[in-house]
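Project standup — Tuesday

K.O.: blocked on the structure for the chain from last sprint. Re-posting the sequence here as requested.
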Amino acid sequence: MLRIAVTGSPGTGKSTVVAKVAEKLASQPGFKIGGIRTAEIRKGGHREGFSIQDLVTGETGTLSHIKGNGHRLGKYRINMEDLERIGVNAIRNSLFCDLVIIDEIGPMELISGAFVAAVEEVLESNKPILAVLHHSSRHPLARRIRKEFEVLAVDTKNRDELPEKIFNRFASQLL
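H.V.: unblocked you, prediction finished:
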């Protein structure tokens, strides 16, 4: 069972690497990808927060924003409702897919006990997983992933070649 986590400093392209692999695998006939994808919410050239999307249904919500009432993490407020309604459900439903994508396992997501429990459910399965792992998290779940997964560091030198390398690894085992 192939499990890969990509990690690296902010802005190195971790989510882009995972998105490119997912796009290429999703183009294979009959291959189903589940899980979550996060993306920046930008306005006027500035990041205001992050969205969260269910890869199967396409449903998108707000993971965090500079405005709001949720738990504060840095300058952002975590939207627990969307994290749990969209993110947790997407991760649990990914157990019915060929590959689980979790973008990202980081401080915002790890605030939710339901999120942690959903990821742990997937880890207990035999599903192949491709995840983005926050570079410095010391959360027990992050430590477990570092121990159980093949962890690849993304940087500006390798981010263009990594998607093909990761795709080939998954394709050789899943297609």
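K.O.: great, moving the ticket to review. Residues 80-93 form the longest helix (14 residues). The chain has one domain: 3-174.
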